[in-house]
């Protein structure tokens, strides 16, 4: 979603802003802009579409903006108003002396706008952000003090925001604040930065301060002051970012998505390392702060997440219920937050999120905390808001995931969830401990098995080429691979825009079968193990009988499969409990190659954002 970069110092401001914004591009956006304080004036440059358009515009204005010491930049993912140049940030006020960039949504912008219109403010855009620009300008008129004006304006705002503001008359100051949206202050030598996410600044400095809600940062090149909303100074310790800048490189792959798919074996090794030291010893999860007694007394587990993380949660339900005998409910965060929270102190609430910044999941875990539940967060971003809210935190350490389509984070989350389920099972002795030992052994083999899939991609590419022109797709599976079917379908629709739906295979004849004919490919996941293999095969035969084009994803070498399926994508055999880790990989690749053949923008699909920071 939207991204913010701000800079005060002596380096070329435009380069720093553009470079920072380019590191946030992966989050998804539809326009971009910068404002600089140059030659005593605020100058704003904005362009619709990709950052490249803004770069080209700035190139033509080079001479006007040579002498700049401070600036703010933004990429916008449209919420209020079309994704055009007028609605792009930065926004300004009547006098044009102030510039502001904003992530989030101002919920009371209509009421505020009414008042401001009555005071003579003229609005150019349809955005909620422009209201904040006028509001701060009005306060500036009273106090002639930018930090004070921002604080007074913030008292009137409702909603979620990260703001970065500059004023012509205070050329060496940037003011930032946040509420329910991330904003960090990054500290340099004779220069300081504001950013909505660390990739924007990590190449310059790793020293950061994470602002909390309702905190205000006043930056000059040589100082940073953090205050509360009344202007009282707050002591905040700086922290060191846990990332390396190299993590943002494609390392020779055509797309980040392909690179991230290929990183999965190492990501899994990474998650396992230290936590599974020896298959004969218990899982080590020091991150879980529940006592053994608290674990034994758990009556329920709720897992809340969105998108791909929700699919990981659905796999976890099978595992946790089987291994621990604790009933597990899984719910989309966006649904969880709009009904009564009947969660209590004997319920463990698990929030899963790659980014740790997904607005609905943040709200959901806060609700769960407020009724006394222990909140365990599984995230790829130990520096995120969610991580900071957690009672227990299992970081999955998959490295920054740049492609909007989540891949490596899914499997990293799954491994963390398997470890957690085994950890509880070992404490409660609720599952056959010999079987757990076998599964631990198998888990250690997963990276190798994924490597086998990755080194034999030809069948997947052939299949992708054959099906790239279809407009619809159905994915079916049963049991623990039903969430994988949903995930495979989500990957395909996200990056190729093909309408793909996952169904429990048994549901096909309760409706979806009506859609089947030769124009509707059906991909069936058939992993031997429990009885579901035979059942999915029967459901696939029913689909075949309706002329659907059939693809199998399986580890089986059953000769009968050749009668039913035109394409068979084979994966190494694996215990059924662990199979989603294996079956997810060819589905990621299938989606990737179809999107690639169609010439889609794989890493930044239209309309999507990497972190969904608005409800
Ligand atoms: O960062 P989160 O895991 O909380 O994000 C949740 C979803 O927005 C995310 O998984 C989304 O569905 C991805 N684009 C899936 O590829």
Number of strands: 23
Q: What is the CA-CA span between the terminal residues?
A: 12 Å
User: How big a fraction of the residues is strand?
Assistant: 15-25%
Which molecules are bound besides the chains? 5-amino-5-deoxy-1-O-phosphono-D-mannitol
The whole-number mean of residue pLDDT values reads 94
Oligomer: single chain
> What share of the residues lie within helices?
25-40%
Sequence stretches where pLDDT stays below 50 over 5 or more residues: none
Strand order of the largest sheet: 3-2-4-1-9-8-10-13
- Summed up, the helix count is 19
Biggest beta sheet summary: 8 strands, antiparallel
Decide which structural class fits the backbone: alpha/beta
Shape: globular
Radius of gyration: 26 Å
Structure description:
This protein has 615 residues and is an alpha/beta fold. An eight-stranded antiparallel sheet has the order 3-2-4-1-9-8-10-13, with helices on one face. Strand 21, helix 17 and strand 22 form a beta-alpha-beta unit. It is globular, with a radius of gyration of 26 Å. It starts with a strand and ends in an 18-residue tail after the last helix. The mean pLDDT is 94. Bound molecules: 5-amino-5-deoxy-1-O-phosphono-D-mannitol.
């Amino acid at each position: 979603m939207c991204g913010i970069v701000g800079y005060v110092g002596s380096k070329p401001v435009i380069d720093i802003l553009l470079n920072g914004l380019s590191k946030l591009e992966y989050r998804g956006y539809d326009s971009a802009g910068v404002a600089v304080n140059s030659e005593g004036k605020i100058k704003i440059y904005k362009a619709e579409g990709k950052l490249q358009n803004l770069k080209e515009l700035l190139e033509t204005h080079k001479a006007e903006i040579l002498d700049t010491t401070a600036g703010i930049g933004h990429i916008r993912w449209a919420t209020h108003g079309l994704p055009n140049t007028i609605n792009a940030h930065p926004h300004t006020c009547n006098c044009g002396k102030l510039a502001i960039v904003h992530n989030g949504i101002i919920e009371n912008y209509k009421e505020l706008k009414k008042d401001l219109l009555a005071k003579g403010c003229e609005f150019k855009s349809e955005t909620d952000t422009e209201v904040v620009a006028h509001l701060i300008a009005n306060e500036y008129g009273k106090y002639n003090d930018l930090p004070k004006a921002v604080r007074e304006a913030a008292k009137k705002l409702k909603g979620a925001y990260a703001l970065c503001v500059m004023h012509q008359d205070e050329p060496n100051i940037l003011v930032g604040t946040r509420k329910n949206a991330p904003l960090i202050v990054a500290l340099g030598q004779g220069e300081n930065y504001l950013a909505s996410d660390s990739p924007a600044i990590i190449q310059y400095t790793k020293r950061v301060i994470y602002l909390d809600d309702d905190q205000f940062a006043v930056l000059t090149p040589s100082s940073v002051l953090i205050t509360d909303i009344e202007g009282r100074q707050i002591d905040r310790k700086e922290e060191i970012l846990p990332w390396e800048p190299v993590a943002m490189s494609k390392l020779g792959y055509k797309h980040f998505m392909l690179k991230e798919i290929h990183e999965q074996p190492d990501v899994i090794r990474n998650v396992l390392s230290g936590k599974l030291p020896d298959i004969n010893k218990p899982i080590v999860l020091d991150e879980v702060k529940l006592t053994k007694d608290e674990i034994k007394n758990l009556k329920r587990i709720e897992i809340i997440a969105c998108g791909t993380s929700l699919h990981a949660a659905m796999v976890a339900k099978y595992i946790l219920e089987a291994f621990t005998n604790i009933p597990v409910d899984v719910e989309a965060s966006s649904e969880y937050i709009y009904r009564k929270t009947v969660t209590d102190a004997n319920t463990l609430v698990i929030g899963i999120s790659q980014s740790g910044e997904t607005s609905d999941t943040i709200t959901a875990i806060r609700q769960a905390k407020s009724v006394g539940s222990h909140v365990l967060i599984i995230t790829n971003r130990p520096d995120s808001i969610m991580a900071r809210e957690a009672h227990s935190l299992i970081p999955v350490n998959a490295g920054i995931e740049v492609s909007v389509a989540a891949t490596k984070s899914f499997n990293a989350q799954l491994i963390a969830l398997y470890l957690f389920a085994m950890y509880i099972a070992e404490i409660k002795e609720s599952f056959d401990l010999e079987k757990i030992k076998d599964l631990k052994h198998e888990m250690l083999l997963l990276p190798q098995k994924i490597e086998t899939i990755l080194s034999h991609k030809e069948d997947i590419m052939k299949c992708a080429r054959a099906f790239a022109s279809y407009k619809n797709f159905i994915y079916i599976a049963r049991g623990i691979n039903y969430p994988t079917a949903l995930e495979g379908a989500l990957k395909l629709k996200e990056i190729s825009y093909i309408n793909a739906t996952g169904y429990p295979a048994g549901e096909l004849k309760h409706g979806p079968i009506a859609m089947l004919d030769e124009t509707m490919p059906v991909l069936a996941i058939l992993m031997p193990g429990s009885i579901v293999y035979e059942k999915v095969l029967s459901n696939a035969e029913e689909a075949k009988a309706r002329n659907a084009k059939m693809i199998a994803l399986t580890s089986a070498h059953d000769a009968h499969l050749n009668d039913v399926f035109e394409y068979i994508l084979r994966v190494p055999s694996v215990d059924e409990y662990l199979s989603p880790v294996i079956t997810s990989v060819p589905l990621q690749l299938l989606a990737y190659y179809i999107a690639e053949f169609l010439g889609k923008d794989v890493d930044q699909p239209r309309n999507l954002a990497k972190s969904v920071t608005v409800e």
